[in-house]
Design goal:
mainly alpha
């Protein structure tokens, strides 16, 4: 009997190693999937009130994430291309760039960004250097694009089925319960992950609305020369940038302030209008960045997870692990702290009342 158990255990270990190696190859999309699952699970559960089937609710949740993101990205790309074209034509940057970039050498003017305009540029041979450049780097471009869509596909599929069958995974794990330690730990970590990651989603939405209101309010009093371009888009991008560690929203509102000042600095505008640009910078720093960070982040950072440790996780995760560390580090932090708070004291034989309390875990008295 013991030999059979040993064989089964070795086989199970082999399967676990193989599956772990495969999961490690796709750790980034799997991590993002877990992040999205906990961020949207509360919304998924709230749709039960509409008496929708589980699959329909999962599709609604995924659509609520994908459609706005696709619209914002598409809108931003179109505006960026159009504004860049106007900027290049206005300041004759194409001639300067053509001397340093080989595949721009055949372009005397920017082609019209229409089907007819691009076709005429192709017939005239203006796009030949660009096509040659793309042909030389086709393997690299194909690899990048295919990896992106593969990771996107994995993220969508895993998130969808976690919404549908996450409870089944939880029930399977609870089959190995021992003296309620596993149950207590899994329930605690599950609750805290939802609180932290759903709080991040709320934080993005709240900052987006605050930024849109701040930029629109600024445009209402500022002269047209120094208005914020596309305040709604700028606000949404500012909210999304709040997830970026260390620099956060500064990657949006600092370049936005510089862009707002360009008509005055590069043109013949009145230099006194720079006062409005300074006001915009103060509004962005105080109203959009500082106040929400001091007020909202502590409220939306979970129940037991210390805000400072969470900020360190968001900061150090991308540094150590790369992009997906932005999502993996806070998950690992919550899993580790919850284990130390719930399971570890009982495993070491500590009495339940003597365990670390949530208030102690927050380190508020240090």
């Amino acid at each position: 009997m013991d030999e059979k158990r040993l064989v089964v255990a070795l086989f199970g270990l082999l399967v676990a190693v193989v599956l772990g190696a495969l999961a490690l190859q796709f750790v980034a999309p799997l991590t993002v999937s877990v992040f999205l699952y906990y961020s949207t699970r509360r919304f998924y559960g709230s749709l039960r009130r509409l008496r929708l089937p589980a699959r329909i609710r999962a599709v609604v949740v995924m659509s609520a994430l994908a459609v706005p993101l696709l619209l914002v990205v598409s809108y931003a790309v179109v505006l960026l291309v159009l504004e860049a074209r106007l900027f290049v034509e206005q300041y004759a940057l194409l001639d300067v760039a053509a001397t340093h970039v080989d595949w721009l050498g055949g372009m005397e003017t920017m082609p019209d960004l229409t089907v007819q305009g691009l076709y005429e540029a192709y017939q005239a041979g203006q796009l030949s250097p660009l096509l040659d450049f793309l042909g030389q780097h086709a393997v690299l471009l194909t690899s990048v694009v295919s990896n992106f869509f593969l990771n996107l596909f994995i993220t969508v599929i895993v998130t969808y089925y976690l919404l549908l069958d996450g409870y089944r995974l939880r029930e399977w794990l609870l089959r190995f319960d021992d003296d309620a330690i596993i149950r207590e730990y899994l329930e605690a970590v599950d609750e805290e992950l939802e609180a932290v990651l759903f709080g991040n989603l709320l934080n993005v939405l709240a900052i987006s609305l605050i930024a849109i209101a701040a930029f629109s309010g600024y445009n209402a009093v500022a002269p047209a020369t120094v208005e914020v371009p596309y305040p709604a888009l700028a606000g949404v991008l500012t909210g999304a940038a709040s997830l970026i560690p260390v620099v956060g929203m500064k990657v949006v509102y600092l370049p936005l302030t510089a862009i707002t000042a360009m008509p005055v600095l590069l043109g013949s505008g009145d230099s006194s209008l720079l006062v409005y640009v300074l006001v915009l910078l103060v509004v962005a720093v105080v109203v959009v960045d500082t106040i929400p960070d001091l007020v909202l982040r502590p409220l939306l950072s979970g129940k037991n997870t210390h805000v400072g440790l969470l900020m360190l996780a968001y900061t150090l995760g991308p540094v150590v692990l790369g992009f997906y560390g932005l999502f993996f580090a806070p998950i690992a932090l919550v899993v580790g702290l919850t284990f130390a708070n719930t399971a570890l004291p009982r495993l070491l034989g500590a009495e339940e009342p003597g365990g670390l309390s949530p208030d102690q875990m927050r380190l508020d008295d240090f």
